[in-house]
């Protein structure tokens, strides 16, 4: 095995110099001297970036509770990934990290005309014009999480007035869609799936009108269920039993007990 070159860490840790520039130089050095870093491609980095993104989301939750250390670390990790992608692009003659930053600076100025001597325009209309998009719905990635994509599509449609008049009307629609789902169950799995999708879509729309984040709401509901289920497991174990040995009535009693303890 070829021994890796010895680099002078002081050149990258010099706090007197711009940290962004130091990170760019570090990534270039890694690509030059480290066999593992050198063999990475856009495709091989993808799963690592997805993992980092989810760690970043968890760090956001921590920061909302006043614990900022994890977010600081994850921002740094995400910055490393972004610079790494830009370095690969530069090696292919596509663009540099500096060009990517110049692009986003120009884009933000163009999308805030009211701040730079122009007339105010809705964000998505400014973006649509800049990219030459035919539809207001263009540019919403299909790969987005379903709840997020639904909210983005609904918000775009609402910009031109295609929206429910008030949350009360939307709540009535929720009940209507729930009844249609009940009927669809007797028809076929495909029809049930379609109606379930409609119900979820209108629930996301209701969340948007109420100023709530449906992805965050579902995430927190899942966390709540996880806490209570773990408490059920712990209480069953304390009684010398396993959940799998209990009937549904006994498990429900444990769940309600965990719920009461959490609220007390």
What does this structure look like?
It contains 12 helices and no strands. The chain is 71% helix and 0% strand. The chain has 3 domains: 10-110, MazG-like (Helix Hairpins); 146-212, Orthogonal Bundle (Helix Hairpins), CATH 1.10.287.1080; 216-263. The protein has helices at 10-13, 19-33, 35-38, 42-64, 69-91, 97-110, 123-131, 146-159, 167-185, 189-209, 214-238, 248-263. The longest helix is centred in the last third of the chain and has 25 residues, at 214-238.
Structural class: mainly alpha
Helix content: over 70%
Question: Structurally, how many domains make up the residues?
Answer: 3
Query: How far do the termini sit from each other?
Result: 61 Å
Question: How many strand elements?
Answer: 0
Question: In CATH terms, what is the architecture of the largest domain?
Answer: Orthogonal Bundle
CATH top level assignment of the largest domain = Mainly Alpha
Q: Considering the protein shown, what is the CATH homologous superfamily of the largest domain? A: MazG-like
Q: Which residues sit in consecutive blocks of at least 5 with pLDDT less than 50?
A: none
How large is the radius of gyration? 25 Å
CATH domain topology of the largest domain: Helix Hairpins
Quaternary organization: single chain
Shape: extended
Strand content: under 5%
Structure annotation, total helices: 12
Sketch the major β-sheet: none
